[in-house]
């Protein structure tokens, strides 16, 4: 079979609700993003929208357990759920340890759920690219809800939250004080704050967040709630889910179009930047030249580094004009 | 530009808590630049469903309970039933007597790693024996 | 300990001696212990600090460095207790009797993974493992079968179950003993009941969170010893062995064990008990690993540390409650599937360490340890191995024969000092359940294992057959197979019990257990009632799960 035949055959199975085909198509968009358009053109008649939720928090806060618990409730309500769990790729080996599935063993056999572990694969914009494409596949597959779970560290991971409609930030006692959270930026992105592992003394941190939210002005009139949960005993999960539905209602009341616009705009810009960056790197940046500048900086002194780089910049401007 | 990564699922069939071996091998697989999905305790249905949804190239079963025949058979039967057996390289590791290697291979296991195995050998075998 | 003038002379002579050595070359290896304590070329009186009566003293006298009893092995040999169980309770009973006839002096039940995790054999997820790694003990009938024709009032039995299934399994044992006409107040034995074994030693399958495990472990200590229901029982056995096997070193082993013991003592003191009400029955289970002298120093240091902890921290009054009594198991992880006969040699040396260190009880491993459960032949060789030490070597003629060795005394001090420091480190994290749920202990375990693995791969830690004089993994050992019919037998046993018992009555008792779990009261009285009425281990643990939830331990790779 040619590549196209493979995709055709997978699409036809995909449309019959075959999870194996969905899994294979995810692999294709992840490894060969240029094929995404070949796949998505088959979905032109599909008008279905999923509601997309993001969960973020540091390693060890219990994100996956919480994701599993929320997904279980959604399944109980008769919804179909697609989950994407992102873990970091090691910058040294290029490998990744994806350990989220182990927390979701209980739900994974439900016919209405699909869960995929994703490695961030390091490169710029990489996470959101694959995540966006997978959400498109989930939407085409007919998922009611999509949950994206990531470790909230680093800019690239924050970017993922441009792709979702509701952001749940998960914290645990002992993570640090609210000042640290502010520094890390996580306090600004949440639509809902969840303090997990209540048994380790979550009340204190919940109060701190409440106080800080009280000092913030929310233009939309929506003030993020703070929920206390214990993912192990299941305590507080119903409340958290209610907060998610409340926020969803708020978003829909305001017009979900705004959120979608943001999502697509972000995606389109990112695609353009990626393309342009690639063009520049491939056509105008000569690795030898860069190495020469480094060599000179080491030998003759670092203070020449700017003038050397500007020489390259001049050339790039020139060449772009030539090509345009 | 294709950046295909080898994806491996590491599972502990059954309820026996000897995870060390599986974790050490998982770590070595990650350090070799592959993507390792850790399944932990899973029954055969959960293993096969995870292998399908994660679209893995390799399935590692870590078994220290002496029940390796029973669990491996359950998993392979189900992989065949779902039509994905031919796409996935199956490896078994743990406290497996050398006497049992031939029968496991006959069942469809590509290779077996008993006590004292070196992680480098496992990584090398994966790289050279992928089915797809 | 020595006269100042003598020490000064030794110092001068030693300098001269070292001067002469400058020419000689030493092998290019690191001279360090297994826990990486740097070791000098030679130890002399200059290295022995402290006063004899203060820090070493006589056996049976504080701080017990030389042993907990005044006569030690001249009075009574250590208990020869092989950890043993496979297939069904009936098969295990036969093995126990076989070992008893061959001179074993204590029993120890190795249970299967289902019994460890509170899973009944009717659950398909664990069914293939019935009896494969130990004896299945799922209901009271199993306990009758296990101990049939065994005089459990004369020989002590160790039940190796952990906090999650300790209450139901031990309650079944106590009920069985009562029905057989034994009085609980005379019953002797040990329950492992060690919170760290099924959390960091092995990964638990669907157990409850650590704070609940700590509480039920303490419930058991409270009910048996403090409340004097089974006053001679050892209600807990802090099992450093199991995590030591995961790669940590001797210092960490004692650190884990003592930090855990302190958390249990604190819990019981919070309940209103005094340390003297129960600490005399706390027991310990340590490893005998590869580093001969470090292990001996470890046992001697452990006695001193425990004494100090009891006396200074817990203000224990009764001198009988200050002694550190411990069982030893030779190191399974030091054994190889390659060259299995060499395992006999390794085990003999490790067993000797334990005896020279003054253990109260010893398990010696079988040479087939790395491949399967022990065959009858391998178990007998293991038993004979410690009998060689006991009956042929005459090491038992005198007490603590290595005391006074400059090296051993120095190393004992060194180990002790390092353990105190490590305990401080653990206690900064919090009580033992916190150290578990925060993942701290998992990281320690991971780092230790990884370090050891790198050492083995680099050849810095030698394992014959693996990284020196390699031999391929082969079929040289006959493999002992557990019974294929165990699953049917056990399902049948449970079904018969369920048909016999009064289910309506049991339901009411189990409802009471639910409420006891919710209120966090002591679970023992109601579980005694429930198991007497035929509740299975799985049924009781399902209630724990229902009320307390299922805990997934932190993953550290």
List keywords for this structure.
heterotrimer; B: 132 residues; alpha/beta; Rossmann fold; five-stranded parallel beta sheet; 5 strands; 23% strand; globular; C: 557 residues; TIM Barrel; 2 domains; nine-stranded parallel beta sheet
Structure write-up:
In chain A, 52% of the residues lie in helices and 14% in strands. In chain A, α10 packs across α11 (256-283). Chain A is an alpha/beta fold and 324 residues long. In chain A, strands 4-2-5-1-6-7-8 form a seven-stranded parallel sheet, with helices on both faces. Chain A has 13 helices and eight strands. With 132 residues, chain B is an alpha/beta fold. Chain B has a single domain (7-129), classed as Cobalamin-binding domain (Rossmann fold). Helix content of chain B is 41%, strand content 23%. Chain B has five helices and five strands. Chain B is globular, with a radius of gyration of 13 Å. Chain C starts with a helix and ends in a 9-residue tail after the last helix. Chain C is 48% helix and 7% strand. In chain C, β7 (282-288), α11 (292-313) and β8 (326-330) form a beta-alpha-beta unit. Chain C has a nine-stranded parallel sheet. Chains in contact: A-B, A-C, B-C. β3 (96-98) of chain A pairs parallel with β2 of chain B, so a sheet runs across the interface.
């Amino acid at each position: 079979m040619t590549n196209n035949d493979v995709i055709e055959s997978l699409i036809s199975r995909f449309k019959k609700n075959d999870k194996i085909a969905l899994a294979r198509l995810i692999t294709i968009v992840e490894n060969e993003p240029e094929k995404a358009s070949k796949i998505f053109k088959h979905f032109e008649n599909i008008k279905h929208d999923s509601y997309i939720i993001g969960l973020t928090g540091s390693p060890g806060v219990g994100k996956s357990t919480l994701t599993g618990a929320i997904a279980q409730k959604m399944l109980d309500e008769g919804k179909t759920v697609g989950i994407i769990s992102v873990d970091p790729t090691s910058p040294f080996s290029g490998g990744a340890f994806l350990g989220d599935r182990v927390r979701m063993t209980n739900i994974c056999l439900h016919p209405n759920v699909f869960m995929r572990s994703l490695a961030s694969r390091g490169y710029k914009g990489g996470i959101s690219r694959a995540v966006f494409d997978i959400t498109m596949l989930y939407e085409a597959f007919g998922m009611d809800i999509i949950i994206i779970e990531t470790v909230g560290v680093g800019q690239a991971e924050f970017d993922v939250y441009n792709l979702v409609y509701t952001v749940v930030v998960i914290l645990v006692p002992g993570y640090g004080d609210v000042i640290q959270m502010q520094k890390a930026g996580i306090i600004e992105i949440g639509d809902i704050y969840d303090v997990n592992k209540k048994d380790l003394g979550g009340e204190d941190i919940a109060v701190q967040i409440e106080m800080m939210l009280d000092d913030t002005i929310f233009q939309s009139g929506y003030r993020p709630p703070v929920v206390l949960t214990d993912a192990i005993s299941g305590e507080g999960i119903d409340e958290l889910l209610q907060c998610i539905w409340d926020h969803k209602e708020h978003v829909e009341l305001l017009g979900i179009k705004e959120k979608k616009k943001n999502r697509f705009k972000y995606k389109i810009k990112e695609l353009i930047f990626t393309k342009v960056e690639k063009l520049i790197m491939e056509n105008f940046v000569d690795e030898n030249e860069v190495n020469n500048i480094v060599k000179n900086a080491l030998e003759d002194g670092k203070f020449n580094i700017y003038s050397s780089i500007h020489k390259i910049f001049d050339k790039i401007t020139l060449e772009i004009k030539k090509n345009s | 530009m294709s950046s295909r990564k080898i994806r491996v699922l590491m599972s502990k069939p059954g309820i026996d808590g000897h995870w060390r071996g599986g974790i050490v091998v998982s770590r070595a697989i990650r350090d070799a630049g592959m993507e390792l999905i850790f399944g932990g305790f899973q029954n055969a249905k959960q293993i096969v469903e995870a292998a399908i949804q994660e679209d893995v190239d390799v399935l590692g079963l870590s078994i220290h309970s002496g029940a390796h025949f029973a669990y491996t058979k359950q998993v392979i039967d189900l992989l065949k039933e779902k039509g994905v057996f031919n796409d996935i390289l199956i490896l078994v590791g743990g406290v497996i007597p050398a006497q049992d290697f031939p029968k496991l291979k006959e069942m469809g296991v590509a290779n077996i790693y008993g006590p004292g195995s070196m992680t480098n050998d496992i990584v090398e075998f994966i790289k050279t024996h992928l089915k797809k | 300990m020595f006269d100042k003038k003598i020490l000064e002379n030794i110092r001068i002579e030693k300098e001269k001696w070292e001067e002469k050595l400058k020419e000689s070359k030493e092998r290019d290896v690191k001279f360090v212990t297994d826990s990486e304590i740097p070791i000098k070329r030679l130890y002399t009186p200059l290295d022995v600090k402290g006063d004899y009566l203060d820090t070493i003293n006589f056996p049976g006298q504080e701080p017990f460095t030389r042993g907990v009893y005044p006569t030690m092995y001249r009075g009574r040999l250590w208990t020869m207790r092989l950890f043993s169980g496979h297939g069904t309770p009936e098969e295990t009973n036969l093995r126990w009797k076989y070992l008893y006839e061959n001179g074993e002096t204590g029993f120890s039940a190795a249970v299967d993974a289902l019994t460890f995790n509170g899973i009944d054999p009717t659950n398909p997820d664990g069914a293939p493992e019935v009896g494969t790694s130990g004896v299945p003990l799922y209901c009271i009938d199993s306990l009758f079968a296990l101990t049939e024709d065994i005089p459990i009032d004369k020989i002590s039995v160790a039940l190796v179950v952990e906090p999650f299934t300790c209450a139901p399994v031990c309650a079944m044992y106590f009920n069985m003993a009562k029905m057989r006409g034994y009085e609980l107040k005379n019953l002797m034995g040990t329950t492992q009941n060690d919170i760290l074994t099924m959390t960091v030693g092995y990964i638990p399958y669907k157990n409850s969170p650590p704070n609940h495990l700590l509480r039920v472990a303490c419930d058991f200590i409270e009910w048996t010893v403090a409340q004097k229901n089974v006053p001679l029982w050892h209600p807990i056995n802090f099992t450093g062995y199991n995590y030591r096997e995961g790669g940590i070193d001797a210092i960490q082993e004692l650190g884990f064990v003592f930090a855990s013991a302190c958390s249990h003592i604190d819990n019981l003191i919070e309940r209103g008990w005094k340390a003297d009400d129960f600490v005399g029955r706390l027991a310990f289970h340590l490893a005998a690993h590869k580093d001969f002298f470090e292990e001996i120093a470890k046992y001697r240091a452990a006695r001193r540390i425990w004494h100090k902890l009891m006396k200074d921290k817990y203000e224990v009054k009764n001198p009988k409650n200050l002694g550190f009594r411990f069982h030893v198991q030779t190191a399974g992880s030091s054994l190889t599937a390659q060259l299995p006969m060499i395992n006999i040699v390794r085990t003999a040396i490790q067993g000797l360490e334990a005896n020279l260190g003054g253990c109260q009880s010893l398990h010696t491993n079988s040479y087939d340890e790395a491949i399967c459960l022990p065959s009858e032949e391998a178990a007998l060789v293991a038993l004979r191995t410690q009998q060689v030490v006991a009956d042929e070597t005459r090491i038992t003629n005198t007490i603590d024969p290595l005391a006074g060795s400059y090296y051993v005394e120095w190393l004992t001090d060194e180990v002790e000092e390092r353990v105190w420091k490590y305990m401080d480190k653990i206690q900064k994290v919090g009580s033992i359940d916190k150290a578990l749920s925060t993942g701290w202990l998992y990281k320690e375990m991971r780092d230790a294992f990884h370090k050891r693995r790198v050492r083995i791969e680099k050849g810095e830690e030698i394992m014959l057959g693996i990284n020196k004089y390699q031999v391929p993994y082969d079929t040289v050992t006959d493999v002992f197979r557990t019974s294929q019919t165990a699953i049917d037998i056990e399902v049948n046993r449970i079904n018969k019990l369920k048909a016999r018992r009064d289910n309506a009555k049991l339901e009411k008792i189990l409802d009471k257990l639910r409420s006891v779990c919710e209120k966090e009261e002591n679970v023992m009285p109601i579980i005694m009632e429930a198991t007497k009425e035929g509740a299975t281990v799985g049924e009781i643990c399902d209630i724990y799960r229902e009320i307390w939830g299922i805990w997934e331990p932190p993953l550290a790779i």
